[in-house]
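Quick one, probably user error.
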């Protein structure tokens, strides 16, 4: 793989992410070290926390609570051997936020103090400010060093290759170590001459007999003859009954369904490209596999033939998964399955799904991914947000301390160690666009309350709702279609209690694209569309055949598709060669 490092400026986008990889905790010449769990660490003597293999960031931000057995104790904080801060610790827990520039891949955080001091920390979280995508270093606030992947073939370790070496197969253009069990010729029979030369436009049938039904893989090598600049739109379609057809573009090295593109011996005064396909199939005892071919170049169609064909009944891929608690992951470290009692969320394995997600098949699916008409207007998901962006302006300011706190993977407002949100109220005006419904969700904790009248209030367009301390989770959907919404909220606590909010989300259910008024998410739910939409039939309230509606108007369906819902979701193919070879109907 060819990596090119370029030095130039890319606009900085601030993005803080919590580190979820497991921290390593080690005492430093210390036998009096107690770790009650990952949440609380107690020690009489120095120790360090280690994180390894972090890439592409410019700043660290630590959040933790700390206390000591003595008053006014100074704790020396070092990071990778460099003095970063002196912590002044009291006998009660105090919350610390420490931020500084740093970009080493391995992080060693040392807490140095004498053995007569018992130092406790809890809820330690480390955040990094990430660099822009594809950026290796960004200490200046811009991308100082960008990595561009110039490999347009296959990647094998640090090389760019035409074909993966023996014992490897290509998966998404990456060579993966694989063990295959090839079926011998005595275990199958092919009753066709696989070496016949065909013109593009002609077909070939292969009749393959096995002694059993099984799921396996077919490796097939084609020699294709033509001029690459003239035959770039030539296609080979491999079809088997009761299976989705597979397409190979022999003169376009896009490595889709293919293992290699190589030059071979010229014939017919035409260039030769040898292309290898590797396809998963469900085989029966008797199988008919048809190779269809097509070219838009009707004057000189070019030729093709099958050079070799192999079948396998077993495949084992060897991935080295580095994601914490992941059971199975792909070559590029994308987790597909977590260990027992864990859920997959944003390529991490978590114990509990966030409130704005749905548990589905061992995964946490975001509501707006499961329900496409949903759009989040407000989402409380980071301690680096601002009160103004979540709750809006203060309308009744009692000068109370209201801060963000991050604990056990959740962001809280009003949950800081010294927070005392009792009477302050907020107001926020929202421009919602075209929608038919809204939904407000949040968790509420009214702590240390001494009165049954204590409550949290929120008002939507003048209507007020009270939430008392016996309620902990609010999920309030409401029919609403006005563009502007006024939202007020506040805490009404009599004495020493306080309000704490978490998992706070405000979302809208949107109308279909370019709809001005609707009662639901579908095009059929739209009561009025924008004027002058090109290719739109206002009587039938939909785009003309061959087009679909998105936010920019009526967009043409993919090649060969007659009726589509989106560009990649074709409902009906055309009854012509384009429909036969280019169109894949959505099933």
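Nope, works fine. Designed sequence:
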């Amino acid at each position: 793989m060819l990596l090119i490092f370029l030095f130039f400026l890319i606009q900085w986008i601030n993005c803080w992410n919590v580190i979820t990889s497991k921290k390593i905790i080690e005492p430093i010449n210390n036998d009096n070290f107690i770790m009650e769990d990952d949440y609380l660490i107690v020690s009489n003597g120095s120790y360090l926390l280690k994180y390894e293999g972090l890439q592409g960031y410019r700043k660290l931000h630590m959040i933790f609570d700390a206390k000591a057995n003595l008053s006014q104790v100074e704790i020396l904080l070092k990071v990778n051997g460099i003095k970063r801060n002196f912590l002044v610790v009291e006998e009660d827990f105090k919350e610390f936020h420490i931020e500084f520039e740093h970009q080493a891949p391995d992080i060693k955080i040392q807490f140095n103090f004498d053995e007569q001091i018992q130092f406790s920390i809890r809820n330690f979280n480390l955040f990094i400010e990430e660099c822009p995508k594809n950026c290796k270093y960004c200490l200046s606030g811009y991308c100082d060093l960008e990595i561009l992947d110039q490999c347009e073939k296959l990647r094998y370790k640090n090389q760019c290759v035409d074909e993966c070496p023996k014992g490897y197969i290509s998966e998404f253009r990456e060579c993966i170590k694989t063990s295959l069990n090839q079926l011998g010729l005595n275990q199958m029979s092919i009753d066709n001459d696989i070496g016949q030369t065909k013109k593009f436009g002609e077909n070939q049938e292969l009749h393959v007999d096995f002694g059993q039904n099984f799921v396996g893989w077919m490796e097939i090598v084609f020699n294709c003859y033509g001029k690459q600049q003239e035959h770039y739109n030539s296609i080979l379609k491999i079809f088997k009954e009761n299976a989705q057809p597979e397409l190979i573009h022999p003169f376009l090295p896009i490595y889709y369904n293919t293992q290699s593109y190589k030059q071979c011996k010229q014939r017919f005064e035409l260039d030769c490209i040898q292309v290898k396909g590797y396809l998963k199939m469900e085989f029966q005892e008797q199988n008919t596999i048809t190779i269809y071919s097509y070219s838009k170049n009707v004057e000189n169609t070019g030729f093709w033939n099958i050079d070799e064909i192999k079948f396998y009944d077993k495949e084992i891929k060897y991935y080295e998964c580095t994601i914490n608690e992941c059971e199975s992951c792909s070559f590029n470290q994308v987790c597909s399955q977590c260990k027992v009692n864990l859920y997959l969320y944003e390529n991490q394995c978590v114990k509990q799904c966030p409130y704005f997600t749905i548990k589905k098949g061992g995964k946490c699916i975001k509501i707006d991914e499961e329900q496409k008409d949903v759009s989040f207007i407000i989402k409380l998901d980071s301690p680096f947000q601002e009160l103004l962006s979540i709750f809006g302006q203060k309308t009744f300011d009692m000068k109370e301390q209201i801060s963000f706190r991050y604990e056990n993977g959740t962001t809280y407002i009003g949950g800081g160690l010294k927070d005392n949100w009792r009477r302050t109220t907020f107001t926020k005006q929202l421009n919602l666009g075209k929608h038919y419904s809204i939904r407000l969700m949040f968790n509420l904790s009214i702590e240390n309350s001494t009165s049954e009248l204590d409550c949290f209030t929120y008002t939507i367009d003048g209507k007020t709702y009270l939430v008392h301390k016996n309620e902990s989770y609010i999920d309030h959907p409401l029919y609403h279609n006005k563009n502007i919404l006024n939202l007020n909220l506040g805490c009404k606590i009599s004495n020493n209690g306080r309000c704490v909010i978490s998992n706070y989300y405000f979302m809208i259910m949107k109308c279909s694209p370019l709809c001005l008024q609707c009662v639901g998410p579908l095009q059929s739910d739209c009561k009025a569309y924008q004027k002058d939409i090109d290719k739109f039939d206002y009587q039938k309230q939909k785009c003309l055949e061959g087009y679909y509606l998105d936010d920019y108007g009526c967009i043409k369906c993919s090649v060969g598709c007659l009726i589509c819902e989106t560009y990649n979701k074709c409902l009906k193919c055309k009854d012509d060669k384009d429909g036969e070879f280019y169109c894949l109907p959505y099933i």
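Helices lie at 367-370, 387-390, 577-581.
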